[in-house]
Amino acid sequence: MCRHIAYLGPDEPLGRLLVDPPHGLFRQSWAPRRQRHGTVNADGFGVGWYAEGDPVPGRYRRSGPIWGDLSFADLARVVRSGALLGAVRDATAPGADGEAAAAPFAAGPWLFSHNGAVTGWPRSLAPLAHGLPPDELLSMEARNDSALVWALALNRLRGGDEEAQALADTVLEVAAAAPGSRLNLLLTNGETIAATAWGDTLWYLAEPGRRTVVASEPYDDDPHWRQVPDRTLLAASRTDVLLTPLKDPREAYGPGTPSAPGAPGRPEEPPS
């Protein structure tokens, strides 16, 4: 389910990154090339972007398919940004949350998306939800699995965790509570990108010092796209990409482990 993309680089019209590429997010809404689960991402879409001088991103989200929104076509043509996160949604289960269920979710400087599904939802994550402060549960934007995964990651961010560490620990915690879940998470603060490959595809395109793109799948046939191995944490800026192996918590820490820290990262050599 779902496709998403994050970008850091020179200011570009949103459409140049999301609509114009031959296999961009716009086309991935009905014809993804590498999606393993689901075929059509028409249950909502969204994009969040950063304006110069403002650390809090703006968002545009809708409950319908991206191809049916003429207002988005105009917005994508004229709005420019050097950092964005976009997503198209294939819902795991029916719901009444509308555009509130569409990524990106947001809080403070952060934009977040989840590509995947939590097995046994909602019962499987009830113990983890009980550990969240009541005000954070009550302020969740939607009542789906992605919104709760975001609440778990956001609780760590607000507690002082770095972005990559917050994602790593959230994935391991959720995977321990709901084995078999697909947990490709994507997070940006406008200056860095953190992401996990856990059960679905993740790729990145890096031009050190100029731009970094992290996406569910390549939006064109540029030979410099690199696939992120499954069970991996990615941490990136405009200049560096680091990959960290993530182990299934049952393998690394034994059955029943509620959560576990991520491993230290290793730098990934950018393509020449």
Automatic annotation (TrEMBL):
GO terms for biological process: ergothioneine biosynthetic process. CDD domains: YafJ (cd01908). Pfam families: GATase_4 (PF13230). It catalyses: gamma-L-glutamyl-hercynylcysteine S-oxide + H2O = S-(hercyn-2-yl)-L-cysteine S-oxide + L-glutamate. Residues 244-272 are annotated as: Disordered. HAMAP family: EgtC. NCBIfam families: ergothioneine biosynthesis protein EgtC. Catalyzes the hydrolysis of the gamma-glutamyl amide bond of hercynyl-gamma-L-glutamyl-L-cysteine sulfoxide to produce hercynylcysteine sulfoxide, a step in the biosynthesis pathway of ergothioneine. This is Gamma-glutamyl-hercynylcysteine sulfoxide hydrolase.
